Amino acid sequence: MNSIILLRILIGWHFLYEGAVKIYNPDWSAFSYLATAQGPLSFLFTPLAKPGIIDWVDTLNVLTLLFVGISLLLGVFEKKGALAAIVLLAMYYFAHPPFPGLQQLNVEGNYWFVNKNLIELVACVILFQNPTGEIFGIRYFWKKDKKPIKTEKV
Q1: Distance of alpha carbon 110 from alpha carbon 114, whole angstroms
Q2: Tens of pLDDT along 93-132?
Q3: What dihedral angle (degrees, nearest 10) is formed by the CA atoms of 35, 37, 96, 11?
Q4: DSSP per residue, the chain
Q5: pLDDT of residue 122
């Protein structure tokens, strides 16, 4: 369980950091990522890059990143945070899928089916199935039945 807690905290930090960086970078936008979407679902993503829509997409992206980051880092509403992360990562994955035969545009590295978005998505599925906030997180303090942590005497 300790490794799942560590995984939750690290992924929470990653999402929180990504959201904060986007807030403090006035030039950041998801425009180029969405405008160059490729693969079988590109028709869902390219319209999101249109003027009037992209501002909403950018705002929702940042808010979702911050929500996921805070919920996982603090261990509160972590199932909702993990679910939001799964949806967001699935969108990132399918906007630029690492499928054979597709030129990889606006992505880091060269992949074949499996990339970092898919790996982090699967990790978030594990977090969704194994919430740990009652063990190590803010939810521990909300718990009515607190059991003391046993430590080994030296």
Answers
A1: 10
A2: 999 999 888 777 667 777 889 999 999 999 999 999 999 9
A3: 40
A4: -HHHHHHHHHHHHHHHHHHHHHHH-TT--SHHHHHT--STTHHHHGGGGSTTTHHHHHHHHHHHHHHHHHHHHHTSSHHHHHHHHHHHHHHHHHHS---TT----S-SS--BSB-HHHHHHHHHHHHHHS--TTTSSTHHHH-SSPPPPP----
A5: 97
> Does position 27 have pLDDT exceeding 80, yes or no?
yes
pTM of the model: 0.86
pLDDT value at position 70? 97
Q: Which pLDDT band, with edges at 50, 70 and 90, does 149 fall under?
A: low
- Contact call for residues 80 and 64 (beta carbons, < 8 A): no
Q: Report the phi/psi class of residue 111: left, alpha or beta, with left for phi > 0 and alpha for psi in -120 to 50.
A: beta
**Would you tell me how many other CB atoms lie within 10 Å of the CB of residue 67?**
19
CB atoms inside a 10 Å sphere around CB 153: 4
Q: How many other CB atoms are there within 10 angstroms of residue 55's CB atom?
A: 11
